[in-house]
Amino acid sequence: MTTNNNTAVLKKALMRLTPHYRKVVFFGLFTNLMVLAPSWYMLEVYDRVIYSRNLGTLLMLTVMVVFIYMIMESLEWIRRSMMFQASLQLDHTLNDQVFNAAAAAKLQNFNFPAQRAFSDYRSLKESLYSPALAGLIDVPFILIFIIAIFYIHSSLGYLTLIGLALQTIIACINQYRIQPQMVKANLYALAAQNYFSSITKKSEVIQSMGMLDALQNRWQEKQQGFLLHQAMASDIAGKNAALSKLLQVLQTSLVLGLGCYLVINHSLENGAAMMIVASILAARVLAPFTQLIAQWRTLAGALESYDRLQELLDSFPAREPGMALPAPSGEITVENLSYSLSDNLREPLLRNIQFKLHAGEVLLITGPSASGKTTLSKLLVGLIPASNGKVRLDGVDVYQWDKATLGQHIGYLPQNIELLDGTIAENITRFGEVDHDLLNQVIDLLQLHTMLAELPEGINTRIGSEGSFLSGGRRQLIGLARAIYGNPAIVVLDEPNANLDEAGEEALQQMVQILKSRHTTFVIITHLQGIKTVADTMMVMVKGQILRYGKPDEVIASLQYQPQPTSARSSS
Length: 572
Description:
- There is one protein chain.
- It contains 20 helices and 10 strands.
- It has a 6-stranded mixed β-sheet, with helices on both faces. It has a 4-stranded antiparallel β-sheet with strand order 2-1-4-5, with helices on one face.
- It is α/β, with parallel strands linked by helices.
- Strand 9 and strand 10 form a beta hairpin.
- It folds into 3 domains: 1-109; 131-294, ABC transporter transmembrane region fold (Up-down Bundle); 332-561, Rossmann fold.
């Protein structure tokens, strides 16, 4: 169960990095003071060496300024290390949460761009130790240089402030004009990426029927939208960066010119040396803003990434650890279950589903397409939350049950067999530690010996991405083997015989019968008549409701009467 403590999780994680950045700011004070070293060196050379021609003094001053440079660069290295450590701490804090939130979002919405979530996370982490952020942190320290310029002469200070004000205006305009273009560019880029992904998953159909050119034109429209808005943003940024650089160079010269005027009028103490120092400091005042404008992409991208990640983590917060629960016995209770894709329950996908299964019972679910069977299977294993009602295992809400603990007691075969890159053995054993006794037991139950013997490396054959080189029947058998591996208490199978031949269907029926005798509870969505002989109950669904529920033979016999949908509960 989630609580308010889980909201704004990203903001809280970033706030925990404050101690790192306090040290960065602290060391930044010294590094920015040390930037004055060249000016100090120039003044001392003019004052002590030029007129005295004392080489010993020059050597001493040179050694001192080199030492200051070494200290300054050492402190800069420490600052960068601290910022990098901050990004590592964020990664340690949020890595699992981002992964789980992206997986949950993908489960709820198949079109959710999970890759973008990880890209946003990487962008945010990299921004934490980027030169752009370092420049932003250094902005307050320009006050040091402004004070120094005012100390030289107030007129030079006011001229510098005018340049700083103009530079600030340029930075604000840059962000104001670029942000809308980047938002549009990102929307087009995401649309193009999703469209391309959907095309590649259906490449056989597209190629065989000559649809590629037409689909490519549609993809190009989205891609061109992305390139157009990105080009507009880059054009704006380029103009502002050039203007900012021009202002920085111009201010250096203007301060130098004003300083020269003051020297001529004997209004500048220490004369030409202070004139040059003031021009150097004036350029330093504008340097952080110039750097920020030049690297607008980094900070703008990080801000957009932050907003999207915050929304993702708040929408799919980490669940609080619950009380340790014993392994489920196999009893399933469904209470007044309804499910809708939104909070509007006027047209739910499921409506008022009720039934109960004892350990070792087999429920056969059938019905026409779009009757809610697959949605019900997802609710039974806790993949999605019910809009109303509950699915309980031994009285505990299955959705609230910790999946890491419950998963080993659940077997699930979805309609689309989802195999992962790895060996067949790794897929069957759910990428955990291989128990060869349990693995051999599964192979015997589904009679996989012949299939495995035909593969290059047998059970250790790597199947690649999604097992695409395997036939539909082989993929189905591997998925079935994974579902029953480890003797789960509850097994939910969605169209398990969709790609099986006659031998595979016989093996499936035999497997169900054997595991039923071992008190495994089955919920099987199928039209396979042979399963009816081992099923205890049968459910017929139409338009998200139960049309018939009872003993298989009785349900089949009653269908000729075409009764109205109803709710049903098996006898205890």
